[in-house]
Structures are given as C-alpha cells and as structure tokens.
Amino acid sequence: xxxxxxIQNYALIENLQMKWHxxxxxxxxxxxxxxxxxxxxxxxxxxxxxxxxxxxxxxKRCTIEAEFELESYGMEPWFEExxxxxxxGHCIIRREVMTTGKSRAFINDTPAQLTLMRELGEQLIDVxxxxxxxxxxxxxxxxxxxxxxxxxxxxxxxxxQSYEAWRKSIAALKTLREKAxxxxxxxxxxxxxxxxxxxxxxxxxxxxQLEIDIERASHSxxxxxxxxxxxxxxxxxESGILEGLREIRNELSxxxxxxxxxxxxxxxxxxxxxxxxDISAEAESIAESVEHNPVLLLEMxxxxxxxxxxxxxxxxxxxxxxxxxxxxxxxxxxxxxxYDDEIALLETNIEKHYQEAxxxxxxxxxxxxxxGEEIAQKMVLSLKPLGMPHVxxxxxxxPRKELGPKGADTIQYLFSANxxxxxxxxxxxxxxxxxxxxxxxxxxxxxDIVKMPTIIFDEIDTGVSGEIATxxxxxxxxxxxxxxxxxxxxxxxxxxxxxxxxxxxxxxxTDTETNSHMIELDRTGRIQEIAHMLSGAxxxxxxxxxxxxxxxxxxxx
Length: 557
Description:
Layout: E1 2-10, E2 13-19, E3 23-29, H1 35-45, E4 61-69, H2 76-81, E5 90-98, E6 103-107, E7 110-111, H3 114-124, E8 125-128, H4 139-150, H5 153-185, H6 187-200, H7 206-218, H8 220-235, H9 241-253, H10 261-289, H11 294-313, H12 319-383, E9 392-404, E10 407-416, E11 424-425, H13 426-429, H14 432-450, E12 454-458, H15 466-479, E13 485-489, H16 493-496, E14 501-509, E15 514-520, H17 523-535, H18 541-553
Parallel strand pairs: 3-13, 3-14, 8-12, 12-13
Antiparallel strand pairs: 1-2, 1-4, 4-5, 5-6, 6-7, 9-10, 10-11, 14-15
C-alpha cells in the first residue's frame, strides 16, 4: 500500500511530502484547493500521458515519487519477470517530466518503460473517479466483474486458446482457398506449358552448343576446301612444303663437318617439319569428318528456334533461367494438387477447434450464471441500506449469435430502484447518485478478489447525503480494514468523520504565486475541518459540537 508521496513543481504544488497509513483515509478541502492536482500527479505515476503545461511556472522539471509496501501482495514474481530489484517488499516509483518534453520513469531506481510503469501501477492503485462511473454501462466492465466473481480465469484462458486457434484456422482456410482459386484459374494453361517443356527436353548449355554447331554446319564447304588445300600444300610430292623442308634439312646436314651451326639450323628445320606434318594430318582428318548435311542443319536450326521462342515466351535470357521456369511450373502444379488435402485438413481443424471452444463456452456460461446470481443477491443486500429499499439488480446473460473473444455471452446489468419499476439497463435508468452507490458496492464486492493495495475514491459520494453517506463510509471503512488502503476524496462531513486518517488540502496565496498544500489533521484539526464542512465559511459553536460528536460516534482518536 502507499506509504509516502512526494510531489515537486507540479501545477500549484511546489513541494509536498506526505506519509500515508493503512485503513480508511479521507481527503477534504475547498473546491479548487488542489485535490484534483494530487490525483493528476498520481496518474502520472500510473504511466498516464504527461502534460508539459502541468510543470510549475519557473521550474525546469516536475518530479512525483511514491513508496509502496507490497510484502503482503505476492508481487515479487512481477519484479523478477521484468528484471526490477525487489527490496523486501518495498517499491519506489518515480516519474520526472521536463519542460523539454522528455519524460523519465523509474521503478526502484531502475529506468523503466512507461508501459511497464503503467502495468505495475494498475496493480498498485485503483483510482475511481466520476468518469469511471461510466464504465458501469459498458459490457466489458460488466463481464470483467462477472468473471472475477465467477473465477472463470482458468476456463477463459483455455477458451481463448481454442477460440484463437479456430479464428486463425478460418483465416488460413480463406487465404488457402483464394490461393487455390487463383492457381486453378491457370491450371490448364500451366499444364500446357509443362507439356511443352517436357516435349522440348531442354538441357543446360544446349543453346550455346547449338549456335556453335549451326555456325560450323553452315560453312562446311568452306571448311572442307580450306582443310583440303592446307593438306595438299603441305603434302604435295614435288612442290609441297614438307618435301621442301626435307630437302633443306638434307642440304644443311652436308655442312655439319665444317660449319657447326648448320646442325642447329638442321634441327630447327626438322622441328618445323614435324609440326607442319601434324597440322597436315589434322587438316586431313577435319576434311574427312566434314559432312554437308542440309537436313541436319535444318533440324538444328529448328531446335534453336524452339529454344529462342521459349526464352522469349517466358521473358528470360538464359537457358538456366528457362530451366528454372520449367521447375517452377512443375512445382506449382504439384502444389495445386496438394491444395485439396490442405483444405480438407484445415476444415477438420476448424471443426475441432470450434467444438473445443463451444464446449468451453458452455462451461463459461454456467460459471457466469452462478456468479450472476451471487452478484444479484449481494448487490441487493449492499444497496438496500444505501437508500434503495426496493432495489432489484440482475446480471442478465444473453446468448450471442456466434462465439466471440470472451465466449458465447452478452452481458447486461439490469436495475430498478423503484418498487414497481421494470428492470432496465442500469446506464439508462439509474441516476448519478444511484450509479455511484452501485459502483461502490461493486468495488467492495471485487476488492478481495483483485487484492488491490490502494483504492482511491474521487467523490464517490456525489448525489448522496445524510445517513446514506454514513453507510457508504462504513463500506469504505470495511474495505480498508482488510490489509488494504482506501482513500476517499469527499465533501461530506459524515464520510470525513469515518476516516481513520484525515488529510486536508488547502491553497495559500502570496504576492507572487499560489501554492497548494496538504496536511494530516490531528483531532482538533479534524473537528475544525468537519465543522467547516457542516456550517460553511463561518464555523459556529454548534457545528464544532456536532463535528466532535460525529468523531466520538465513530470512536476515532
């Protein structure tokens, strides 16, 4: 629970340091004294959006810091999970807002993201304002209360899992059917393309080789004639180059005895003759292999035309790319044939998950019906003493047309404060004062389940007075007696007298500025404050005596 609060340079507050105590505390003060400013500072600690205009004029930053005692609330796992130190159940949260627009948050002196500060804050403090009364007409809030009372969390978690699996399977089936439809639209054409590829039986590198072979076949006559002439010129018996080289070699050999370098020349000539003889033999072999075959040439040209046509048709540049197209089409057709099996499997899964979710939704409905009866009975018992002797309350559970994220139920809180009045939706028939009393009773009903350390009621007493206010204070006092801290901002002396601790907020004007302050009142101060609430600006002796009697009646010291 909250043990201390420090506010610096926030709105009208220059420096405020307050100690807080367990139990039921009240906060009073004139309208405009600064009670809403203190709530605004607490909202910053809860991770709400920062407003630079809230920084006190002349200051560069505002700081709000609060310390909590959490030893009895089992929150250590949260700190471990989010890697924050946990010091024997003590927690300090701090928020700093700068005029530059920057904002920093700390949990136990460790920098924290606002999302984590908000997550922790929701477990530390529940601020109930008049605005929150609007939640009473919202189905989400009504269902939240019903599920808390019905302890449906475990079943709800199972239901969520099955429901999400069902919804995801439906979405996957829709996507798969769209893919299958698109794929099947072109199925016949893709079969034609695949058949075209299979008939072509393309091979990697085939295009390049065909181009070489066609070029050679197209010049077969030129190749034959050139090779024959080459062979003839080298091998002619009388005028051939090889015969001439033999003669030169022989003549050089005759000079060896008196000209040593003639031997070297002879060896070089012989080397040339051997190389040319090899060339002659290769030219003869090529000439013999050359075949002028117009039919084969035509076939190769037609094959190359087919390949070029396929390249153009599929808008690719190389044979490897064309072969990849062939593979892709084959894979696509295989996938199309597998769609039916996948669709059948998804349809089976959809039915399975739906039946699981449906079964769990029936269990949820049963738990909610039981919880609805319990809420109705307890709310009537709680509301009757609060000026509603003929009150009726019902948590109506209406079947949905189809399963939803929270189950198969639509929730409506029905209400009537009049003896013969018909039950109607509570947000349509209840007055502001009635809604405030209903919300207080609901908060009291769920307080032990939620185990919220600190609850702040901001003018929950709106629209009530007298004995009803006293009984509302008894409810808050009882809530604060069970290891919980309840703070009530009030304008009613009956409620102010019921607090175990009383704080007063006031405003102080100087020549240059206005500051808001808060103090904890002693018994004398409480009598003065309650008397002021009873009689207004001019405190009478009768008001003082009445205030003291109110405190004595409630046995407060």
